Amino acid sequence: MTAPPVLPRSFLAETEALLAAQDPAVAPGQLRALEGAAKGLQVHVAVLGPRRAGTSSLVQALLGSPPRLHDPHAFFQPPPLTPVPPTPHVPPALPSAVLWDLPGLGPDEVPEAYVTQLLGLAPFACLVLVLPGPPGGNDVAMVRAVQARARALPCLVVRTGADLALHTAKRRGHTIARLLPQLRAQVSEPLARAGLKPLGIAAVSTLEPDRFDFAWLEDALVREVLQLPMLDPGDLLEELPAVRERTLRALTEVCAGGSLAEAPGLLRAALADASQLPVDVAVVGEPGSGHTSLIAALCGNAPGIHTLPGAPGLTLWDLSDAGTVDPSRYDLLLLTTSNVYREPFIRLARAAVAAGRALIMARTQVDVDLRDPTGSVGLREQLVQEGLAETRVFLLSSHEPQAFELGRLRQALAEEAAGLQRAALPVIIGRLVRRERRQVLAEAWRQALHVCLRPMEDAGHGLATALQASAATFGLDEASLTRMAMAAKLELRELQAQIRCPWAQMVQPSMVLEAMAPSPSLAARLWSYVPFWGSPSVPQPQVTLEAAYHLLSQAAVEMALDAERVLLRACTLG
């Protein structure tokens, strides 16, 4: 199967009519030259792995259309008897790439023949190896065949099914913080023994592309396809963020439909109004510790849902069985005891810390400690022995609820809620900027194609206009920066200091053409000094598709990095 056309049909028809109107004689040749230039920029990426590894689902997620779980039974059907033929796709956000969804390696197939046949379909420049779990013997043989066939090609390894592995780990009581490194180690160690050194191993869920390592995988592909070494995908995620996905979705919805320039004002308003962002606190108490009385003292005796005064979005849940509490379902855990914690509560505390959840402890019979101070000493020693020495402990009294440190506990809960909401900002801003980057990169390809058809002077104006439009999309133009500075009560220069990309500022067409023009040859420079009539003119620089697309795509990536810095600074609450 051949790759899809590099130029869209609508663009071909429009361009053919435009060139024919200018000069019908040379129009076909110009169109063929443009198509050849576009074909030369294509980067073929092979996505392969064993059957049922999820290669097709991964490709669909990279195309922006992740599979939906409409029919749960569809994910448990046996594989088709006839494998799906190789299918090439062009990602809308990366038009110069061709993702090949290759059929999976069957258990009875010879890995060497499989790899030789599939890697001969196109001049692949990058490999994405998809594995559903620890590689078996046939998978390792496939890796060795890939090494023998394409050792020099960069390779990304994707471990699918991270969401299912997370669910299983939680049911078995394993710590979530160690899950992702374990998933990668299950794959990396056998691959290392087989001699494969990938660029990275990403643990992803094709059903939830916003979670786990999918953003890292996307950045790595953009870097390899566009050959942009300045784009560093960063470190792989080592643990799940402390902020729950529900809070992330709520903040994302706040900014839905708005531009990046409007995001700081919307996010700051949402964070200032605690009622918009729910924070759930699990209050779990030892028998006889009076945790129900503590909730009443914190929230008042009003019936209904327990909400903290002054923080209407913070809800306290009265729980008694520590063995059935899932810390990942709550933003914060408050554990109460009258003396020392029993083993179920210690396990829950460890699980909360491992899940990245905030943890507060309270001893509710401090009035007894006044008569016998050895009790509080025993609790502190226990926390040190259990590796929980940094956990904050508040001293309270069930008999005198308003005495001792109840006010400090109420303030700590409100501060933790605000801190959790602020911790979501980097994740939210990353998602918002990534959404705009996809659109700008897709537009860069179309703009580069149009620029190549224009005269030199018009091409310079077209590129300058495209760069200014990209800067406005990322909120880096002066009007957007001024709006964000006013919303954040910052000086304009504080936001401008976050910008590194030279193309984010107002640029002149001559500056763009000068940056793209190749250096004149030695012969051209020598001829320029010949003082007689008829000397050959110095060749004028030409705007090629490669130069135009590289400039626009590199500027899009650099502006996206600048936009993250600007938005983080503008969203910081003073």
Automatic annotation (TrEMBL):
<dbReference type="InterPro" id="IPR007743">
    <property type="entry name" value="Immunity-related_GTPase-like"/>
</dbReference>
<dbReference type="InterPro" id="IPR030385">
    <property type="entry name" value="G_IRG_dom"/>
</dbReference>
<dbReference type="Pfam" id="PF05049">
    <property type="entry name" value="IIGP"/>
</dbReference>
<dbReference type="InterPro" id="IPR051515">
    <property type="entry name" value="IRG"/>
</dbReference>
<dbReference type="InterPro" id="IPR027417">
    <property type="entry name" value="P-loop_NTPase"/>
</dbReference>
<comment type="similarity">
    <text>Belongs to the TRAFAC class dynamin-like GTPase superfamily. IRG family.</text>
</comment>
<dbReference type="GO" id="GO:0005525">
    <property type="term" value="F:GTP binding"/>
</dbReference>
<keyword id="KW-0378">Hydrolase</keyword>
<feature type="domain" description="IRG-type G">
    <location>
        <begin position="41"/>
        <end position="224"/>
    </location>
</feature>
<dbReference type="GO" id="GO:0016787">
    <property type="term" value="F:hydrolase activity"/>
</dbReference>
<keyword id="KW-0342">GTP-binding</keyword>
<keyword id="KW-0547">Nucleotide-binding</keyword>
<protein>
    <recommendedName>
        <fullName>IRG-type G domain-containing protein</fullName>
    </recommendedName>
</protein>
<dbReference type="GO" id="GO:0016020">
    <property type="term" value="C:membrane"/>
</dbReference>
